[in-house]
Amino acid sequence: MALVSPYHTHRVGDPLDLVALAEQVQKADEFIRANATNKLTVIAEQIQHLQDQARKVLEDARRDADLHHVACNMVKKPGNIYYLYQRESGQKYFSIISPQEWGAGCPHDFLGAYKLQHDMSWTPYEDVEKQDAKISMMDKLLSQPMALPPGTEPTFQGLTH
């Protein structure tokens, strides 16, 4: 018994077979390129998102540091709202008195209100409700029992019969 068929080795192939083979290879190359491009596009979007997040973290850290260096004649306590004012001299200071409480007699320019969070970060007053909702949701998640069983080894329970 022969390992190679003489019929297939001596037969002259159809020239269109070579063209079809070349087209198939070219089509495969195009699909591979398209798949790689799609995957790289997703990665590029993720990188852009991470860069945006990093930029926001740095901006928030700079704002928080600046606010912690603002003049204040009281001990700041997390959870409280503080009102930022600026004197004519340019000096900024925190007060516990809101512009509404000052009324028409507010002596300085009001720059904004901030809540001092328990992690010592500052949340602009207009974002307090949204930030408190996020913190509440995280507290709920952390108070629930763990969804995954403790252990370091992967388990495949439920995946097999």
Automatic annotation (TrEMBL):
<keyword id="KW-0175">Coiled coil</keyword>
<protein>
    <submittedName>
        <fullName>Similar to chromosome 1 open reading frame 50 (Predicted), isoform CRA_b</fullName>
    </submittedName>
</protein>
<feature type="coiled-coil region">
    <location>
        <begin position="33"/>
        <end position="64"/>
    </location>
</feature>
<dbReference type="Pfam" id="PF10504">
    <property type="entry name" value="DUF2452"/>
</dbReference>
<dbReference type="InterPro" id="IPR019534">
    <property type="entry name" value="DUF2452"/>
</dbReference>
